[in-house]
Design brief:
15 strands; 353 residues; Porin; 60s Ribosomal Protein L30, Chain: A; rod-shaped
Length: 353
């Protein structure tokens, strides 16, 4: 009995504390069904009968319907909703003991139906697909012992109503294809204060008080109105085209100022990009490797620069816009000693200014 008192007190204590979490915001409805277990029930007769008395029940079924309101998130990852619930539970009698002796030919059933006001807290753990919740409720319930029999006679055929309470533990899984719809799975501990039933004259008369504690396992659906699908992911920002180059290198064969096919492609690219970068001056500077005399290479570097300038001019760049110079081997791209045939040094640099 002390354990049941603690359960009742704990359930009542949770009710004001459960004020947290969830994705529901606004009106919602739901329905659930499942399996109900009635805890073995202590019986107390008046007038008092000697010995211990109890009733046992088969597993039965339960159903609930509810309508509620979600308040959205009231704290990071936590939200609150309240709901009004109607419930029904039905279990057949499996056994009755009077004075410690089991009666034969038992039968009948217990039906409990009620109205509850629940407060529930939903928790967003960041999983994106699973939302646990806790809740508690209070209300009023009617319990009917329908033709409860033992020893071949009807002992009780009566009903009573009383204060009811419950604790709720559940999981919610949103269905992405239907915004607002979710599958719920719950465990509920549901109980009432002791009910008192009239005992039939054939059962010995008087009254009997009976506990009513239930363990209920439910699964069902909840639909929240006004839920819109999440906006589509923003389109990726267009990748900016790379800025046109401003420096180009045109390479030459050994001791040559003739333009190769690849050299003409590079010059064409420079000529095309000059207007894009709004170049006002184009520097064309020739270079050589270190094979030969300084005077010879100075002249060779200038011939290379003029060959490139002529190709630029052919492609629409005014010669007046160019600054054409030769540096011989005085400014190597790859430093070397004298008389080294370094291909990287046989070049013309085009710089768009």
């Amino acid at each position: 009995m002390k354990l049941r008192t603690v359960l009742l007190a704990a359930t009542m204590g949770v009710l004001p504390a459960v004020a947290s979490a969830q994705p529901v915001n606004g009106l919602y409805i739901g329905a659930m069904g499942g399996y109900n277990i009635v805890q073995d029930t202590d019986l107390s007769f008046s007038p008092t009968r000697a010995g211990s008395h109890d009733a046992e029940f088969d597993g039965g079924w339960a159903g609930i319907a509810r309508i509620g309101w979600g308040f959205g998130q009231v704290a990071p990852g936590i939200g609150l909703r309240v709901e009004l619930e109607g419930n029904y539970r039905d279990n057949d009698v499996d056994g009755i003991k009077i004075g410690g002796a089991s009666l034969t030919n038992v039968g009948g059933s217990q039906q409990t139906y009620g109205v509850m006001l629940n407060a529930l807290a939903d928790f967003d753990l960041g999983l994106g697909f699973l939302y646990p919740y806790l809740g508690a409720g209070i209300g009023w319930a009617w319990t009917n012992w329908d033709s409860v029999k033992g020893g071949g006679v009807t002992l009780v055929d009566d009903d009573d109503n009383n204060f009811a309470f419950q604790g709720i533990v559940g999981l919610s899984v949103p269905i992405d294809a239907v915004p607002g719809l979710a599958i719920n799975a719950e465990y509920r501990f549901f109980g009432t204060l002791k009910n008192e039933f009239r005992v039939t004259p054939a059962g010995g008369g008087g009254t009997v008080e009976a506990d009513n504690y239930n363990h209920t396992f439910l699964i069902g659906l909840r639909y929240a109105f006004g839920v819109t699908p999440p906006p589509p992911a923003p389109a990726p920002a267009p990748v900016a085209a790379p800025a046109p180059a401003r420096t180009y290198l045109v390479f030459f064969d050994f001791d040559s100022a003739a333009l190769t096919d690849r050299a003409r492609e590079i010059i064409a690219e420079a000529a095309a990009n000059a207007p894009r970068v709004q170049a006002t001056r184009i520097e064309v500077t020739g270079h050589t490797d270190t094979v030969g005399s300084a005077a010879y290479n100075q002249a060779l570097s200038l011939r290379r620069a003029n060959a490139v300038a002529a190709e630029l001019e052919r492609r629409g760049i005014p010669r007046s816009q160019m600054v054409i110079t030769g540096r011989g081997f005085s400014q190597p791209l790859v430093p070397t000693g004298p008389n080294v045939r370094e291909p990287q040094n046989r070049r013309v640099e085009i710089v768009l200014r």
